[in-house]
Amino acid sequence: MKKEDINLRFVDAVNYLIDNRIVQSKTILAENLEIKPSKFSEILSFRMNIGTDIAAKICDIYNINSNWLLTGKGNMMLLEPEKPICEISYDPKVGVPYYDVDFAAGFGDMLNDQTIVPTNNIVFAPFREATCWCNVTGHSMEPRINHGDIIALKECTINDIQYGEIYAVVLDTFRTIKILRKSVDPKKFLFVPINKEYDEQEFDKTRILKIYGVMGAISKFF
Question: Is the whole model's pTM more than 0.90, yes or no?
Fold first, then answer.
C-alpha cells in the first residue's frame, strides 16, 4: 500500500467529516486527533505522511473504515450513511454534561445568571473531549448552526483563539455564538455571523467572562 494513497484517503475523510457537520472545523478535528495544527496542515497539504496512531484515532473516533483507509477497499464509513449515535446518560461518569442553558445565535439580551446544573450527560464519540453541551437559539449562524440545535463546547482562553473559527462567548451581559476575527482595535474581537441578514459587531475583550470553541452542532434528539 502506498503512503501517498493513504494520505489522499485521509484528506477525503477529513473533508467528509467537515462537509457533513460530524465535526465543526479542521482545528477541532486536529485537537480530537491530538495533532498539532502545524503538523495537521502539513498532512493536509501532502507534505507529511500520517502515522499509524493518527490512522487508528480517526477510525476509532469517527467510525472510519480502517480497511478503506489503508487499502481503498469498501466504504469510507463503517456506518455509512448513518452518523455516529447520540445517547443520553444519567451516570455522571459517562459522557459529557448537558446544561439546559441557551447560547444566542444573535446579540439579544440574555442574563448570565441561569442555574448551572447539568440535566444529564450526552454520549457522542466525535465530541467526547467536549467540556459541555448547551442549547442554541436564534438564526445568525445558519445554515452551519440552526435554531434548536445543541452544541458541544470545549473551554479555552483568549490566547487559544484561532481567527475564523466559531466560538461560544459568555460576555458580561449575554451569551452568543459567532465567528471571531481580528478587529482593527487590538482590545476588541470582531463577532461575525454566517447569516448575512445579521450584522457584525465588536466587543471589548475585557467583557469576556468565558469562551468555548464550538466543536460541533447536532439536532436536539431528546
Answer: no
